[in-house]
Write a structure and sequence with these properties.
The protein is mainly β and 178 residues long. The chain has strands at residues 2-8, 11-20, 25-29, 40-43, 49-52, 55-58, 61-64, 68-72, 77-81, 92-95, 101-104, 107-108, 111-112, 116-120, 125-129, 140-143, 149-152, 164-168, 173-177. The chain is built from no helices and 19 strands. The protein is globular.
């Protein structure tokens, strides 16, 4: 298991550690290129882990991050990959059956976001995809057996949300549900 970044007593972290459940031990591995907090980490089919977005700076003056990095467990090293189109934190990252990663919602410098992006590990690039009907952060995104992604709950522009939406990777569209 890989644990990377976060917040410590000295601020935001770039450190990374590996946990071996067989031995119950932790070991240090190389650190992120950019210290970050409130980011996502997604295990890709290749075995690499993609870390995307987040924030750095002080809690009173955060700076949102658009960069993404890949951790290669075979070499224990990090490399940069394409940057998100929109810097964000408190977003979700869902691995789709196609091997692409859907990043949805979150919070940016202007507040809650309704934008969504797809990461293609084959090219290391991001592209915009269907927008959420409701801007939200701190929500959940669950891959369903149908291949669609259920985006639910979270926080909107001024209140907690009870609405849910379905993202369909085949049509790149979102439909709202109750």
């Amino acid at each position: 298991m890989l644990v990377a970044g976060g917040e410590g007593s000295s601020g935001f972290l770039s450190s990374a550690e590996l946990y071996d459940p067989a031995t119950g031990s932790w070991s240090t591995t190389s650190g992120l290129g950019t210290p970050r907090f409130n980011h996502t980490a997604t295990l890709l089919p290749s075995g690499k882990v993609m870390v995307a977005g987040g924030r750095l700076g002080s809690p009173d003056s955060p700076s949102y991050i658009s960069s993404a990095e890949l951790y290669d467990p075979a070499t224990g090293s990090w490399s940069s990959t394409g940057s998100l189109g929109t810097a964000r934190k408190f977003h979700t990252a869902t691995l789709l059956p196609s091997g692409k990663v859907l990043v949805a919602g979150g919070e940016g410098s202007s507040g809650s976001l309704n934008s969504a992006e797809l990461y293609d590990p084959a090219t290391g690039s991001w592209s915009s995809t269907g927008r959420l009907d409701t801007a939200r952060s701190s929500h959940t995104a669950t891959l369903l057996p149908s291949g669609k992604v259920l985006v639910a709950g979270g926080f909107g522009s001024s209140d907690f949300l009870s609405r849910a939406e379905l993202y369909d990777p085949a049509t790149r569209r979102v439909e709202q549900h109750r």
